[in-house]
Specification:
The structure is a homodimer of 419-residue chains. In chain A, a hairpin with a 4-residue loop joins strand 8 (398-405) and strand 9. Chain A has 15 helices and 9 strands. Chain A is globular, with a radius of gyration of 20 Å. The first copy, chain A, has a domain at 8-136 and 242-257: 3-Layer(aba) Sandwich (Peroxisomal Thiolase, Chain A, domain 1), CATH 3.40.47. Chain A is 33% helix and 15% strand. At the A-B interface, helix 2, helix 3, strand 3, helix 4 and strand 6 of A face helix 2, helix 3, strand 3, helix 4 and strand 6 of B.
Chain lengths: 419, 419
Amino acid sequence: MNLSRRVTIAGGAITPFIGKFHPDFIWKKHPDFGTRENPTLEQYIHEVALGACQNVGIDPALVDRGYVGNFVGELFSNQGHLGSMAAAAHEGLNYTPFTRVEGACASGGLGIAAGVDAIQAGADIVLVIGAEVQTTRNAKEGADFLARASHYETARGLDPFTFPAMFARRTKAYCDKFGVTPEALAPIVAKAYDNANRNPNAHMREVQMSAEQAGSASDKNPCFLENEELNPWLRVGDCSQVSDGGCAIILCSDKGLEKLGECQGDPVDIVACEVACGPLGQVADLTKMDVTAAAASKAYAQAGWNATDIEVAEVHDCFSITEALICEALGFCGDGEGTQLAAEGATSLNGRIPVNTGGGLMAFGHPVGATGIKQAFEIFRQMNGLCGDYQMESSPARGLCANMGGDDRTSVVTLLQKN
Amino acid sequence: MNLSRRVTIAGGAITPFIGKFHPDFIWKKHPDFGTRENPTLEQYIHEVALGACQNVGIDPALVDRGYVGNFVGELFSNQGHLGSMAAAAHEGLNYTPFTRVEGACASGGLGIAAGVDAIQAGADIVLVIGAEVQTTRNAKEGADFLARASHYETARGLDPFTFPAMFARRTKAYCDKFGVTPEALAPIVAKAYDNANRNPNAHMREVQMSAEQAGSASDKNPCFLENEELNPWLRVGDCSQVSDGGCAIILCSDKGLEKLGECQGDPVDIVACEVACGPLGQVADLTKMDVTAAAASKAYAQAGWNATDIEVAEVHDCFSITEALICEALGFCGDGEGTQLAAEGATSLNGRIPVNTGGGLMAFGHPVGATGIKQAFEIFRQMNGLCGDYQMESSPARGLCANMGGDDRTSVVTLLQKN
């Protein structure tokens, strides 16, 4: 849909993404265990809400609308009704309209899409928050919670780790079709860790993973699925992280921009933000991300862009195969060529089309509801030269975010431009 | 916010709201137990999505956008990602953008607000679905799930039935302040059942409750809270029902209306739809619904209406006290006069300002995510003379819906007009 009112990202805030293997994450062997606790979902929401307002120099009372992207707060934190929880961040937010939006791992992207609509409807300053806490339960319980993003009744039996199994199934289909092995995905994993090692907010900022390590199963990188057919097709290193964290951005109309104080960067235009959904529990072709392709097609058409215009991209790499498939769905390469992009260095920090410069879901981390917001904030920060040790040499002017939920069942593709 | 594009409700669909005491609800003593099961969340979503399209004579492929209002599908049905589930209702919905929205019991109203925004942003036909299934667990487990609408960490300890206790607390404060007893709420309850007994879709269509029965605790209408201080202030009859059900409406721009086939009624304008949130876990004054008052104030200002313009209202009566407090917040009467409105018959089917003509949440039922959609569809149906045995004698031209979540922490007030 064409935007009759210009929408920009004016700024935002992000917390470190933390979890297992992050030095600040409290667990039973952490020296602070028993004296300090990890932040709660409420604390993440409040911290980034206030941080984003501060980042653009506004009193929170100036916010016209708010959205909270979150997937399963009801399960990990016993907490729904997160819009009202966000309104508690500051007395200036009392009576502000907040809505929690959910589309599995695309919840953050849906928050941005809703914010774009709100500005079309007349809002001038919109706060879009994403947050998730997932470390309150063990991995198997968490995997059961996350399986709510699939058609639970029919998919849950696939494996105790339902989603890893669903994407192992895609890896198998992809390898069968294109005559490659899972080792072809190793450069995608290694690139993610390489980028994250330069990113102070990354979950895996201190964990290294070479292409050699990623490319073979080992004690440190085991195959872990119980489903025997799918087990060989996925290793721990192919998976995104179970992270806690939050991110928020401020969207503005032109009139909204006039109300801001001092900002940390120049505004970045949202040129298009398009959503597509596919039927839950039904995937037509395991070797394609057709729903993401549909969202991208609509976004490119709206902007009058094509894939060659994109200078930086945040792509939903919930698993290594996902990055390959989405790069193909976005037209960054042809079918079956997604693994080569990383192998050739095209998606590296200073390659032809850098993808997931901060480490992506696999190494920056994946606090589900925050991920879609983080993607947009990353592009904003790359465009404004704010990425420190992982700043691209040439600040990009045109960028793309592809935020995907479930097994490519909800997808949000956003195109961004710095003037 | 002013609407730059006109938004109308063109039609919709609703299922019966069912649960304990409804003749079609399957439970261990039902004759069909073991041979038939109650509908699932997926079935409700699909039934009303297709029903709404059929009701306005469109191919689902014409839907530009969809929203699903649902509170805790992740808990009662192990299912999130309901936008993608809705997209599975019909092949014509493949690639249609759907978003699940959540704001506790105001989730349906938030779906309508999002749909109004979508039309401002350029959509022409928007499908807004609400559905909830709550009968898969027993009452105590369900009460724990529903407590996710409160600030769980601080509120859950109030009582195993957290929300009933929160509203008993409001009843106590109200009675203390205005010098009345809980018996003053009995006419609100009796009116709800009286209306529901005329409504074939109502959960309590076959259960009767007189003002005498509602006004005193008894074996059939017990006080049930464990919290001793709050126990005397609430009876079972003061509570809304734990129901399953779905409802969907079709919102249209003027251009959208031109695409429709045969409709069952004339379109009804949404003149205003305003949302407000208050801080979760903090209520300034237990005798006021200040968040609902804030949403109403914005809606009245936008429409240029006041309370005396309203000819029919759907008011969120999650408990009997809530109807009294919201009638006051909406300006239907002064502070402390909310109970008298029902006692005097003003809110009866053919009173001065009929409220909850189909039985409201207390007797029509309260499948949480569906409630806000049902409210708007009820007003549409009253305005079009489609309410059968509970049709108002004079078809109203101006109506209001107040859909509220949590302890008055998210509120959506919608004003509707038939030209």
